[in-house]
């Protein structure tokens, strides 16, 4: 009868139950297993910076291979990767007596490097300033920007001192003077070359991501200085060591403080978060 049939072969029933439980357990594990997530572009940038600037400090210059490695990571960055949109309010033109304010989005900072995004509405200006003892990577994320940069001209007689005029200004040579439109190549400047002193002017609303290694630090001698420019011919006398046309040079006077018309506001970064910082 059915009762006898139902009670027959208890060992076989136990083995069948074990097989079912094993199959069910494997199936459950397969359902629970998730594919490994790909790190965000911002996370890859952070990890690369950690490696490139691992032994950083004042005047530290990454190897040529490391410079290209970090540059290649920045080259792949798109606006959507950093969660920034041209429609954000701080890209809109604000009517003011001077240049419109600049907004800074802080992504990360440690003693070895920092990552941040400067957001400039049209006509905004970050005046001529320096990056003492730093290597800086600048990636234009969108828009058009005029960049003018200089390097100091040293005394050719071997003193390694800047060439100074009678009124105390120092001679600098133009490294870059051009308009850049995204997408374009990431620029790199070094402690003494590559346009260590530069000025940004927004031709259109634009955003630029900066990696500084190491970052500014007043206590370690890396305070930011600003400069006033004077045309080469405006100061009497001929500077030694000048070759080429005079328009390639300018006299720079260090300002005692940040320009009054420069307003940089901080805003919360709402893009992809960095893990492990």
UniProtKB/TrEMBL annotation:
EC number(s) stated in the UniProt entry for this protein = 1.13.11.20
What's the top EC group for this one? oxidoreductase
Name the Gene Ontology biological process terms: detection of hypoxia
As one GO molecular function, the record gives:
metal ion binding
What are the UniProt keywords, alphabetically? Dioxygenase, Iron, Metal-binding, Oxidoreductase
Recorded catalytic reaction(s): these are:
L-cysteine + O2 = 3-sulfino-L-alanine + H(+)
State whether keyword Heme applies: no
Report biased composition (Basic residues) as residue ranges.
Answer: 25-34
* Region span, Disordered: 1-40
The record's section on InterPro entries has: PCO/ADO, RmlC-like_jellyroll, RmlC_Cupin_sf
Q: Which domain of life is it from?
A: Eukaryota
UniProt cross-references to SUPFAM superfamilies, sorted A to Z: RmlC-like cupins (SSF51182)
Cofactor(s) this protein cannot do without: Fe(2+)
Among CDD domains, the record links this protein to: cupin_ADO (cd20289)
Keyword rRNA processing in record: no
Q: Which PANTHER family match?
A: 2-AMINOETHANETHIOL DIOXYGENASE, PLANT CYSTEINE OXIDASE 1
User: What family is this protein classified in?
Assistant: Belongs to the cysteine dioxygenase family.
Q: What is this protein called?
A: cysteine dioxygenase
Q: Lineage of the native species? A: Eukaryota, Viridiplantae, Streptophyta, Embryophyta, Tracheophyta
